[in-house]
Amino acid sequence: MELPDEIRRWATFGPWFAMFPVDFALSVVHRYSSPGALVVDPFCGRGTTPYIAEALGRRGFGVEVNAVGWTYAATKLRPASLNRVLDRLTSVALRASRSDLPDLPLFFTRAYAPNVRKFLAAARDMLDWRSGNVDRTAMAMLLLYAHGSRKNSFSNQMRQTKSMSPAYAIDWWETRDMKPPKLDPIEFLKSRLEWRYQFGYPSLAPHGVVLGDSTRILPRRASDLGKWSLLLTSPPYMKVANYHYDQWIRMWLLGGPPYPVVNGGKHQTWFGNREEYRDMLLTVFGNLAKTAKRGAVIYVRTDARQLTKQITLDVLREAFPSKHIRVNKRPMIGNSQTDLYNEGVVSPGEVQISGRAFYVTKVVGGKPFTIRLVSTLTRTTRFTRFITYRGLSDQLFGSFLIRLSPSIVT
Ligand SMILES: C[S@@+](CC[C@H](N)C(=O)[O-])C[C@H]1O[C@@H](n2cnc3c(N)ncnc32)[C@H](O)[C@@H]1O
Question: How far is the CA of 63 from the centre of ligand 1 (A)?
Answer without folding.
Answer: 8
